[in-house]
Design brief:
Blueprint lengths: L1 H40 L1 E4 L5 E7 L8 E2 L9 E4 L3 E6 L3 E11 L5 E12 L2 H8 L3 H5 L1 H12 L4 H6 L1 H22 L3 E8 L6 H48 L3 H17 L5 E6 L5 E7 L8
Antiparallel strand pairs: 1-4, 2-3, 2-5, 6-7, 7-8, 9-10
GO molecular function, one term: peptidase activity
Keywords: Hydrolase, Membrane, Protease, Transmembrane, Transmembrane helix
InterPro entries: Band_7, Band_7/SPFH_dom_sf
Length: 301
């Protein structure tokens, strides 16, 4: 009887022990799943696009040291804590445009300009660490505007609006000034080039220039017309002098010379192909009219 009671007690103990183990295993599994969810929930991925780098800024809540990671994420995918900030940096050549309104030239004319600067980041970590994500707006843009203004003030409106030489000089001056500034400020970016477009003067200046050009064109046309009249007059005078010299050499009176010229004219007219002429001679022996018709007529009288 005692053996049976002992056996029953052992089985009860084993059953309780098994139930406790199952509970511990089940509870442990739940805890593992819970902490896994919490752990992975505190992670996120940093995956830069082609031509970009992600600079990691660590911001721990309780433990660890913050600051910028010395190595950026360049390719692939990297998991980071959700408190870590990832700053995307474009390391490809970038183009920044600046528009200028009413930029004064050396002769006091307000001009509109478009300027473009092309830069390339050489060290993304140093850039974000020392100058922040808005490095261009805070450290480059205002300096660029100032350098362009200074260069444009060295030239007049006509130069900057028409001459490509003046624009090239402005480009060169601004490029040199910006290269010196970037080096002195230790900005980890490379200057590729600076381009300044041609000046666009105010509408009133444009209208005035068009009117001036029209006036100059009229003057040129009138001068050419006057020159043509003078040339024609000189030619007529030369021909008259030649005719008079011929008349004197032939010993002809003015009346006879005129009659001779009339005969020459009639001969030229009647010599035209298909022409038929009739001559009417008056009592004085002078040819009165000359009739040129395409109808056949009787022989000349």
């Amino acid at each position: 009887m005692s053996n049976y009671a002992g056996s029953t007690g052992n089985r009860e103990s084993e059953r309780k022990m098994g139930a406790k183990m199952k509970w511990l295993i089940g509870g442990g599994s739940v805890l593992v799943v819970f902490f896994s969810v919490v752990f992975f929930g505190m992670l996120r991925s940093a995956k830069p696009d082609a031509g970009h780098e992600i600079v990691l800024v660590h911001k721990p809540l309780l433990f660890g040291s913050g600051g910028i990671d010395p190595e950026p994420v360049r390719t692939g995918q990297q998991y980071i804590w959700w408190t870590t900030e990832g700053v995307d940096v474009d390391v490809q050549p970038q183009q920044f445009e600046v528009k200028f309104d009413d930029l004064m030239s050396s002769d006091g004319v307000p001009l509109d300009f478009d300027s473009v600067i092309r830069l390339q980041v050489t060290d993304s970590v140093a850039l974000i660490k020392n100058f922040g994500p808005k490095w261009y707006e805070k450290n480059v843009e205002s300096v660029l505007k100032n350098r362009v203004r200074q260069a444009v003030r060295q030239h007049g409106m006509n130069e900057t609006a028409i001459s490509t030489v003046a624009i090239e000089e402005i480009d060169a001056a601004v490029s040199e000034a910006m290269a010196q500034y970037l080096e002195g400020a230790q900005l980890p970016v490379r200057l590729i080039d600076v381009t300044v477009g041609k000046a666009n003067p105010p509408d009133a200046i444009k209208t005035q220039r068009v009117e001036t050009a029209a006036q100059e064109q009229r003057k040129t046309t009138e001068a050419k017309r006057d020159q043509a009249e003078k040339s024609r007059k000189a030619a007529e005078q030369s021909r008259a002098e030649a005719d008079n010299a011929y008349r004197n050499a032939m010993g002809l009176s003015p009346e006879l010379f005129v009659a001779l010229e009339a005969v020459k004219m009639q001969r030229e007219v009647c010599a035209t192909s298909g022409a038929h002429c009739s001559f009417i001679i008056g009592d004085t022996g002078r040819v009165v009219p000359t009739i040129n018709t395409d109808q056949p007529t009787s022989p000349a009288q």
